[in-house]
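INFO  loader      accepted 1 record
INFO  loader      residues=158
INFO  predictor   begin
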Amino acid sequence: MIKLDDRDLKILSVLQQDGRIPKNQLAVQVHLSPTACWERLKRLEKLGIIEGYGARLSLAKLGSSTTIFMQVELVSHRAEDFERFEKAVMEMDEVFECWAVGGGIDYFLKLVCKGVDAYQRKVDEMLEADIGLKRYYTYVVTKPVKDISIVPLSILDE
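INFO  predictor   done
INFO  writer      dumping tokens
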């Protein structure tokens, strides 16, 4: 496990809120010199803690869309079956997130489609593609209650 101090955590916290903050302003907010802050930032990037920088988009303002969660169970559980399914999912633009999970279900997927009809067409494609889909369960999001991509770093202290 990588050991981070309070300054590293503060850098990460600030960057989660504003990934475009100028480096000099970041240094001021975390109470470091620009050089020391830059060195810490580069270290966090090199360690892979900071995976990249991007913008959070409002899907609602970009047009009509439906968010759907999907539970997936595969027909077979050999390593090559998981690999085939995961490779196929990586190619699907509608799949925003996919997690392999333990228990009775093999995967949870988060999809964003133009609507339920578009989602059903995607499921039909998945079934026809023979990627090992045995059973799936669909959950249409009626409203977001909490939707953040910012990790509360305080949970890491426990």
